[in-house]
UniProtKB/TrEMBL annotation:
Taxonomy, superkingdom: Bacteria
CDD domains per record: CoxG
Organism the protein comes from: Phaeobacter gallaeciensis
The protein's name: Carbon monoxide dehydrogenase
InterPro entries: CO_DH_gsu, START-like_dom_sf
Pfam families in the record: COXG
Length: 150
């Protein structure tokens, strides 16, 4: 499965990059995130509860950030285990471009799933992934706007 999109964030690129590396901001923005622990500048551990169709699962996973050319570009890879519900693993490439006094965030993400989740059908998985991504970026953008106003 592959997803890609872009969103304009009304904040300078350096601040957007910093927020994308801030566990507190990410925990508020990630749908269903119960806990996000930063082990190092590149290693994060997350606990997320998601409902995908009839399957509700608690995922525990690791995320590794690779700052390719900060603050303009970075990538991340991760994998999560949802017990009987299955597993998910994937990665994303993120590009931050300064534009009109703010930042255009463009991403391309790829994911593989297995277990019960994989049996739900690709259309349900794809539409749920799109909704979750849209929810994340809407929440992330709102967090950035709160920070700008403060």
């Amino acid at each position: 499965m592959e997803l890609s999109d872009e969103i304009f964030i009304n904040a300078p690129r350096d601040e957007v990059y910093a927020a994308l590396n801030d566990p507190e901001v990410l925990q508020k923005a990630i749908p269903g995130c119960e806990e996000l622990i930063k082990h190092s500048d590149t290693e994060l551990e997350a606990k997320v509860v998601l409902k995908i169709g009839p399957v509700k699962a608690k995922f525990s996973g690791q995320v590794t950030l690779s700052p390719d050319a900060p603050p303009e570009r970075f990538s991340l890879t991760g994998q999560g285990n949802g017990g009987a519900a299955g597993f998910a693993k994937g990665g994303a490439e993120v590009v931050l471009t300064e534009q009109d006094g703010g930042t255009l965030l463009t991403y391309t993400a790829k994911a593989d799933i297995g277990g019960k989740l994989a049996q739900l059908g690709s259309r349900l998985i794809q539409s749920t992934a799109k909704k979750l991504a849209a929810k994340f970026f809407k929440s992330f953008s709102e967090e950035m706007e709160k920070a700008e106003a403060a």
